[in-house]
Write a structure and sequence with these properties.
The protein has 506 residues and is of the alpha/beta class. It has 15 helices and 17 strands. It is globular and about 65 Å long.
Length: 506
């Protein structure tokens, strides 16, 4: 059948505007970034370590994309979250530890550096954060940070000071004393309003529901989004979950051993430790199920194939790793999948938290600002198969202690401030998790590599050495007066006894 050319020409002006007017959805990819709280790499089943929790949804992200065997983050939450949000090491920002904010960085973190949320917001993304913030004096809802929506764990006192809402005085919340308000009977503020809850409500559930609602609303509005979930799980206290234990059982009571025999005391404490570990595992498995809900939501909305999922943790497990300037303190999980990502599975390539901000901006098609020195680089070329390598070395820290790694060598516990300017140097080869490390500080066969590590350290800005300006500042003088340097060094420079698998002799 023939169609006259003049009929086609008359149809084109009618059809064309519907295409150009934005009727087709924006194809920019969405991003879901999940940050666990205080948990080491060995807890996730995709890493294949003994005693790991069952985490099939995290494993799925790893299997459909890339699982970095070695990712470093600062060993404690404030510098870790600051690095994640800015892509700039603490040497430049001044965020070294939860109680070490140099250069006025508590207030200026997001004015001297850029928040990726703010840059993405300016580029047309809708942004949301749910969970635990704890990243300087600026709050997520403030313009410098750039989150459109939020659902955060905050105590009643902070809700009152920040929003003028007296949740207890108004009767919105019972005046009951709890060991913590992040889990059962949670205290939550959502977009400027207190979330009314009951004692059977579990905080992570509410925050997960918030993110799923955000994803649905933005998908229906055809708006690209980034949903950031710095979840409170599995940070202590090790509470029960809706699937394991009773509501409001927030803290496992430590046994009173004062009247026990030595044998009875040992058994009681062993039972207590087993109970704590069981709760810890349960929390991680419950977090994985909530991550599964986010994945299922993306699938139901039809956006799964156009959504990046990134999972990581802010630092190593509390007590055994957190705030220790050794590999276990800074070694965190990192798995990622997304549109165009090459399914590599487990990779020996290295990454650290400085890479997260450049990666998110690259995903969104945003150029890095030129007025700030970014310490990381985008993972996107490696993730999408444009390159087969990523970085030669990665870096992390806690307070005045530094950790540096290449694929085959590790420098840890380096701290001129604590009298350890050389740190400890190891040849690890392909080994990880502290097994099979060879101490090579004084081995001539490894001198060239040691010299390269020194070059890298010297290329970075000063890291709380003796003449660092922090020590003469008001905050620094207060820190020196308050803290026992020797006691801190005994913790921060060494592994927990349960993980002392290699030579740490001075």
């Amino acid at each position: 059948m023939k169609v006259c050319w003049w009929i086609l020409l008359t149809l084109v002006p009618v059809c064309l505007p519907s295409v150009l007017s934005g009727a087709e959805p924006d194809n920019k990819p969405n991003i879901v970034l999940i940050l666990a709280d205080d948990v080491s790499t060995d807890m996730f089943s995709c890493y294949g370590q003994p005693g790991a929790a069952r985490t099939p949804n995290i494993d799925r992200i790893a299997g459909e994309g890339v699982q970095f065997r070695t990712c470093f983050a600062p060993a404690i939450c404030a510098p870790s979250r600051a690095l994640l949000m800015t892509g700039v090491y603490g040497n430049r920002t001044g965020v070294f530890r939860n109680d070490m904010w140099a250069f006025g960085s508590r207030g200026t973190l997001f004015t001297r550096q850029h928040s990726w949320a703010k840059l993405m917001q300016k580029a047309g993304y809708k942004t949301a954060v749910a969970g635990k913030w704890h990243c300087g004096a600026k709050e997520p809802w403030q313009p410098e940070v750039g989150f459109d929506e939020y659902c955060l764990w905050e105590g009643p006192d902070k809700i009152k000071s920040d929003f003028g809402i007296d949740v207890i005085g108004s009767g919105q919340r019972k005046d009951i004393k709890l060991p913590d308000v992040r889990y059962w009977y949670p205290s939550i503020v959502r977009n400027g309003k207190y979330v009314e809850v009951t004692e059977s409500d579990f905080g992570p559930d509410i925050r997960c529901e918030f993110l799923m609602d955000f994803m649905e609303r933005k998908t229906k509005a055809k708006q690209p989004f980034v949903a950031y979930w710095p979840t409170v799980i599995p940070h202590g206290p090790y509470s029960t979950t809706p699937e394991a234990g009773k509501p409001m059982d927030i803290v496992l009571k430590k046994p009173d051993t004062s009247s026990m025999s030595k044998v009875q005391k040992a058994k009681a404490l062993a039972d207590y430790r087993r109970g704590q570990q069981e709760r810890f595992v349960n929390l991680n498995e419950y977090m994985d199920k909530l991550i599964g809900k986010l994945i299922n939501k993306a699938e139901k909305l039809g956006i799964y194939e156009n959504t990046w999922f990134v999972f990581c943790s802010d630092n190593g497990t509390a007590v055994t790793a957190k705030d220790r300037g050794v590999e276990r303190g800074v070694h965190v999980p990192y798995v990622v999948k997304g549109p165009g990502v090459k399914r590599r599975g487990l990779t020996e390539e290295l990454t650290d938290f400085a890479d997260i901000a450049p990666t998110l901006l690259d995903i969104a098609g945003i150029d890095l600002p030129k007025d700030v020195t970014f310490d990381g680089k985008s993972q996107v070329p490696f993730l999408t198969g444009k390159t087969d390598t990523h970085r030669d070395w990665i870096y992390a820290y806690t307070g005045p202690v530094q950790v540096l790694r290449t694929k085959a060598y590790l420098l840890e516990a380096r701290s001129p401030f604590y009298g350890k300017p050389k740190g400890r140097f190891y040849f690890t080869g392909a080994n990880r998790f502290g097994r099979g490390y060879l101490r090579v500080d004084n081995h001539s066969d490894h001198a060239v590599q040691l010299a390269k590590f020194a070059e890298i350290i010297n290329s970075l800005p000063s890291h709380l050495v003796g003449d660092h300006p922090f020590w003469t500042s008001k905050r620094g003088k207060k820190w020196l007066a308050k803290n026992d340097r020797n006691a801190l060094a005994k913790k921060q420079l060494y592994n927990h006894p349960d993980y002392a698998f290699y030579d740490e002799k001075d």
